[in-house]
Amino acid sequence: MKISMIVLLGCFTQLAMAQEIPMFIGTYTHAGSQGIYLYMFDQQSGDATMYSSTASEHPSFLARSAKGDMLYAVNETGDSTAALSAFTFDGDILSFVDAMPTGGSYPCHVAVSKRHPLAVVSNYGGGSLSVYRLGENGGLVEKIQHIQQEGTGPDSARQEASHVHSAFFTPDEKHVYVQNLGTDMVTVYRVDKTNNNYRLIEEGHLSTPAGGGPRHLVFDEHGKNSYVLLEMTAKIAHYEKNGENWILVDTISINEDGFEGDNGAAEIKRSADGKFIYATNRGDANTITLFAVDKSGKLERKKVYPTGGEGPRNFNLSPDGRFLLVANQKTNNITVFERNMETGELKDTGKQIEVSTPVCIVF
């Protein structure tokens, strides 16, 4: 009987440990933040426990390696200290490995390939891309490319120059799509490997609606539909692939009908089952919007939710899909929503994580 009890307690302990997973939060460090925060997130209760912090200057966007043993952060500064930093993570401790300059100001996004030893950084201020080769251990080996984009857009205040905002690998990892808010352009690069040397080679581009300012995008699992989030107009531009060409199917607002005020669309993500898409809007809205995706890929706006704070930036879904967490930059809090797996609908749990200027959440 005692042995059975010991085994049972051991099972409960393992289950409790499995429920808790690491969650990294990137911040701006001008208002007292230390840098990167590691929390343990309970996927059963939605509770989050502060575990540790790691010093890093303005780590505004984070990405984990496919194995999860590396964490990468852009250091979003406007001078020569702008960099990509790499950290090891052993499941317990986050340790700094190295950093390399981006060669462009205000880097705001990093994408890490699951298939190739590559990381791509978007330099918003410099309007450029920095491409890095990663070592077998995940460390930064060298910067192999610096791609400068040029151009302007119709909004003379926001689109006076090139502003590269993000880069995403396609589901098959053969291409990288780069969003430029300043030029209303999505540029398509092919990932080329010749004699074990990698380069991004430009293959084409998509023109997005004028004055929209493309910020981020998501693909469906087959790469047949893409959804570009337009920051300045708070709309999603839905494209469908026809042969080698992308056709603009529709644009849909992430705001409620009749909304009047300033926009600042920030993040777009797709649920793992592909049935739902979510997008945040800052400005005067401070909302996150749920869209249903039908079999053809068309979006239907279902519901708009207040985010429980101001300046909702990045958000993320827990790996099991049961929770969605939104980083409210201006009010120093992360709101924890419970998510209905069948309908995609969100319910505010009332649980808040207090963090100084949170802007990125990564599991």
From TrEMBL:
Residues 1-18 form the signal peptide. Pfam families: Lactonase. The keyword Flavoprotein does not apply. Transmembrane segments: none annotated. Keywords: Carbohydrate metabolism, Glucose metabolism, Signal. The keyword Cytoplasm does not apply. PANTHER family: 6-PHOSPHOGLUCONOLACTONASE, 6-PHOSPHOGLUCONOLACTONASE-RELATED. Belongs to the cycloisomerase 2 family. This is Lactonase family protein. It comes from Sphingobacterium micropteri.
